[in-house]
Amino acid sequence: MAGSQLRIASRRSQLAMVQTHWVRDELAKAHPGLEIAIEAMATQGDKILDVALAKIGDKGLFTKELEAQMLVDRADIAVHSLKDLPTNLPEGLMLGCITEREDPADALVVHANHKDKTLATLPEGAVVGTSSLRRLAQLRHHFPHLTFKDVRGNVITRLEKLDAGEFDCLILAAAGLGRLGLGDRIHELIDPAISLHAVGQGALGIECRDGDAAVLAQIKVLEHGPTARRCLAERAFLRELEGGCQVPIGVNTRFEGDDLILTGMVASLDGVRLIRDESRGPQHDPEAIGINLAQKLREQGAGAILEEIFAAVRPEA
Ligand code: DPM
Fold this sequence. Notes:
Elements: E1 5-11, H1 14-30, E2 35-41, H2 44-47, H3 53-56, H4 64-71, E3 77-81, E4 93-98, E5 106-110, E6 127-129, H5 133-142, E7 147-149, H6 155-163, E8 169-173, H7 174-179, E9 188-189, E10 204-209, H8 213-220, H9 225-240, E11 249-256, E12 259-267, E13 274-282, H10 286-299, H11 302-313
Parallel strand pairs: 1-2, 1-3, 6-7, 6-8
Antiparallel strand pairs: 3-10, 4-10, 5-8, 5-9, 11-12, 12-13
The structure holds ligand DPM.
């Protein structure tokens, strides 16, 4: 493999760079002699900061520019937070590798004034900063005393806004905080009984050109089988419900013997209706488990909830 080259496209945020550097270092260890270059760029999702995420509505908000680089052969792979990667990829590209997942849970981060509080004991009207419809709907369902305000920008910017008093608390992915060395800001890990995490949360997805066998073989060394099976079940569930990355859909996965158990939920934006169920099956066919769970939730009315949400938040076509 001596003399060969690999070009990585990445977003520029601190979190994206930490993740991409990790992938670069692991690939360098696995393939001595491989020359690896990183091209960092901003995506639409990094540039449009004054519009609520859900209103932009576009799938692939954080991934399109990176994908374009691969399609014109200026990059070989793109490193993403798997949860930002749409379930349907552009023609010519594929999800080549899923890395070992960190704790996929969401975390509560509080302003210094609330160090003695929990989600349940925050004062009436306390302002939670989040742009995630998934977090909003589930927390509204369980904690009607809280209010919600949109927050955009990367993790560090959000923490600065919290500390400046714009919010009483934030909900952020524990994995992102951990990777940034900010694990000490985690005040409470949110119990999956209260709020399910996003599809793919905590794992990295490495995208490459479909059929690029040499590159695929290079990145496959970073694949983590159990994480991949969990995430493929979660992604099949989301794909089957035709949800983009901005819908109130949450999941949780666990193994029991040879079985994989997928829990999933769909909620209305006011948190009043929340449909939650689980599906299990042999872990060698994760897609079937995801598809089965989507059908179960549809039978319980998930389709109607999602229709309403698309009508409410989607930009005019
Ligand atoms: C997606 C969502 C958010 C990100 C929606 C969701 C959170 C937006 C918000 C699809 N992408 O989770 O329901 O809360 O306002 C994002 C983060 C990470 C990847 C940051 C975070 C890091 C964790 C990981 C933004 N994408 O969720 O705190 O790698 O899973």
